[in-house]
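Repro case for the chain-ordering regression, as requested:
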Amino acid sequence: MIIVLCPLIVLMILGGVVALEATSLLSSVVLLGIVGFGLSAAFLILQAPDLAIVQIVVETLSLIIFIAVILKTTSKDTSTRGRGRTPHYVMAAAFALIFVLAASWALASIPPFGMPSLRMAEAYLSPNSLLQPTGAANLVAAVILDFRGYDTLGEATVLFTAVMGVLAVLRKTGRKP
Amino acid sequence: MNDYIGLGVIFIGILFDLFGCIGLVRLPDVYNRLQAATKCVSLGTCGIMFGIFLMEGFSGLGVKALVAIPLIFVTAPTAAHALARGAHIAGVRLWRKSVCDEYEEEKKQVGRGKPFI
Amino acid sequence: MRGMTPIVKTVTRGMAGMIFLYGIYIVLHGHLTPGGGFAGGVMVAAAFVLVFLAKGSPEAVSEAKKERSSMAESLGILTFWVLAMIGLIGGTFFYNFLTKGKPFRLLSAGFIPLNNIAIGIEVAGALFAIFITLAVLKAGGKK
Amino acid sequence: MSRIVYFIIAYAFWLLLTLSVDWQHLVTGAVVCGLTTMIFGKISISRARKLFQPQRYFWMVLYVLVLLWECLKANFDVAYRVLHPAMPIRPGIVKARSSLKTDVARTCLANSITMTPGTLTVDMNGEGDLYIHWINVKDDDAQHATQMIVKRFERILKRVFE
Amino acid sequence: MNLDHLFLGFVASLVALCFFCLYRAWRGPTVADRMVAIDILGILVVGLCPLWAIYTKRGFLIDVALAWILMSFIGTITLAKYLGGQQLDE
Amino acid sequence: MNLIPLFVAIPLAMAFVMPLFGRLSRLLPDLLGNAATLALAALSCAMINLPMMVYKVGGWEPVNGVPIGIYLVVDGLAVLMLLIINVIGFAVSVYSIEYMRKYTDKARFYTLFLLMMAGMNGVVISGDMFNLYVFLEVAAIASYALVAFGTEAEELEAAFKYQVMGTAASGFILVGIAVLYSLTGTLNMADAGKVILEQGRSQGALFAGALFLMGFGLKAAIMPFHAWLPDAHPSAPAPISAMLSGVLIKAIGIYALCRIFFNVIGLNLTTSYILMAMGALSMIAGVFLAIGQWDMKRLFAYHSISQMGYVVMAIGIGTPLAVLGGLFHLVNHATFKSLLFLNSGAVVYSTGNRDLQKMGGLNQRMPVTGATSLIASMSIAGIPPFNGFWSKLIIILAAVQAGYYGLAALAVVGSIMTLASFLKVQRYGFFGKLRPVWKKVREAPVFMCVSMVLLALLCVGMGLLLLPGVKDGLLDRAADAVTGGTDYSGLVLGK
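-- result from build under test --
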């Protein structure tokens, strides 16, 4: 598995770097597609098809929405480059460096992937029945819609909120004359 | 037996994918790249799917692989056509050694810069 | 000419239905196979988006569609809420009040398929509403 | 009429997806396909009558076989051009004329052309003029191009769709 | 050398092919080139899905492939429409 | 039947119904919105003096002692926060009946407002880390949209800035949750606290703590992370400014910070020093930035940073008295800061202007607004009979008691500077000679006055919370929940 996963991660990282460097916003959006597709493929490799499907559909839809927005605004990257921004770059690089160092120091104490003490997951697959207590064949569906259905209500509400926000902010007139 | 035929078909499919990707890198302009990539990669993927179908037979996996083949065959050329037309309207030039461009001439006759049709 | 070339239009006429059907398949089989309300809902929205893209759509129709998809979104999430509240009346919030059924059948796992359908409707409405809002938005005001 | 046909096609697709003859799947499939037909059936199939003429299916099969053969040829053609160190290509966009009338037939033709050796449909206008990107232009005259690219499918497609 | 290793090799080679697409997306002189690269990347990964499904013996991974075909078609159509200079609603 | 889920369910239901029926009549959005907030306020008052409650969503009992469902936990701290959120929310929604007439699409305003309420309530009652994150996002996204509700250019810009910062903060929080999850194998806060206690605090927990500090610090606008607040809060419509400054930064910032740091990870000396330093910094720097402002709402916004500094500093000191003072100040700040923003909204409503230099003598034309703003100003500056005095007094006493004389001195200095800046507001805004421009200005409509008076009464009466009988029921229990630290696990899991 690792022989496939590592190249995919390299692909995603390179794609992200290239997307940052592109000068036109459209190119950036298109190149971000590499990151999204690579992520979806990585989920597939990790045998999480639910996530892979969600990632691919969301990737496509966000691509469409990006395009819609770029069409309405501009496709030029208008941020200033180079001049006068050096302190920012230095700060960002320093922060990233500190973050990576701290993370690699801290994450060493975390049990390796795949064999942490999966306490909750063991409980989900309860021992006294064939499947989980919910009777769903797909464990992910059982977790997100039954054990943690309240979370899913919250997530659906996040989407609802976002749509309401978009519709509210993009009204024709904000204030009454 | 089916397994080995399937493996062979899959192998050929991946080989076609390889040709397509080489074409994507080597050929000189968008239209040529589309030519190579669309044809080879979609047929290669179809080959993989068909090989899987041969290996699996009528199980859930095999049938879905079979269903995927017509879908690829319909969507891939359409997408290629749409991209080529979009690129041409967006003003992407043909390779400088190209022989002729009758589409460009037609567009000029119909109206300057406007997407025609 | 409104919309895209005849080739794309013709292919869309066939493909939109298939995408829609596949989206619904993912929603309905969320508790058996990968996917679920969210992924399927996005695919259903994408089917409508594809038709919209290929045909192009006059603005007046789009406004009405936006309202309708926003309503569908509210209805979907309200259904989800009602399903949760039925549990509250019977015992606790989000109590799985239906019978569990036999595993691997379509009608199993209590209210999970119903939840999936509710979320699917909500997501489809939500994303189509966002798409229409952004696609028909007239960039006004100061440029 | 066209809706019934659409319903049947959708139902077949559904059955292939579920691959189960459980009554629950069948009933749900009927409901779902009915919904799909309600929403998309109107725009999808225009001349359902043609679907009930069996000779068309024979030509359909033939068409698929020809298409597959051409596809294979196309792949070897592309592989040759790509792998050849000198890249023997001579690209250009030529115009060809098709005599097909219906949209479906024209679409099939355009997509077939895209899948065959060295050609890619760039655009198609209302009168049936196809603009084709040709990787190795042999003749930029419309008549000859038509002869070389379009004719081999046109004959079959005419039988299938018109 | 059994079949499993063979399939792993197939999948790894497909992932390796993705780097060709990355190269084209990086270098592509025009936006259209990048779009072509993304389109091809999508189709390549579609081929990866069933191979991985066989390798891991989890048939349901193929669902991802179908979703991928359909969605990447929509994405490409949108990009093409943008390139063709049309607003999305016309 | 247990009522805890209703805190989320009621506002969500009204929010979902609003887009369906909101167009039918002009009155309906007002009616539905206020009914929901009234019900919530009543419900939260009913929660006072109940024992700590644990609610298992979906009826999933723990398996082998590992909680598998989501827990909702209402302890003393949560009750306090619920009271603040819902009472202030009710006052603000009454206020918006009149105020939001100036804007279009009231139905959507109430939808977003109720979603924000639901999000904050969800954060407060949640006993599960990921659930907390989800509702935090609901509240945050609703607030991004509400900041931009006027759709003017500068509002959109402020909202954009706010959104970028908020999203970064959410990212940090999510990564922190992921680290904690992979460390402990559970998302339940009580269970995670137990596991961390058993394992000992490892490097992973420290890293997660740092991430949470950045994330919630950004949400709460503590000093190094404060840059978005002075833009975002003044740009929103006045009722929303009141909600944001008065409640939101507390509910999804301070409250979550307390919950995670005290009850899950457990506070150690380094963390408390960091909290104290950040608190003291924001306390002083916020007030110095505030005193130079001439834009009324902007001045108030900077004061939010400063007053949050008091709270964070007090919580960082960590003695029971200090935590009590900090929480009391939290409550007080919610009342007087919302009142101040509502006042500024009334001024904007009547005059269309919020520049202090152009005002003057508004007391003569707007007596209710003037009087209530005087009460609020005295309160925030810490003048004796009002509630702000008592909480600041407790904080300073606690600082002295714990031996941090420097912090106590800083708190005094900050208080004096606050007094100075609010004297400026009163002097230029409400006292002095009435300018001829404002001769025809009228007092704000009745609903706005009602809610301002309600909050002013709260400001005056809140000092009573320190009376022995009342204090036990509310403040002491909240302070116990914080200072009890990782006892939380035992209480929730029932051992």
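Ordering looks correct now. Chains B and F do not touch (no CB pair under 8 Å).
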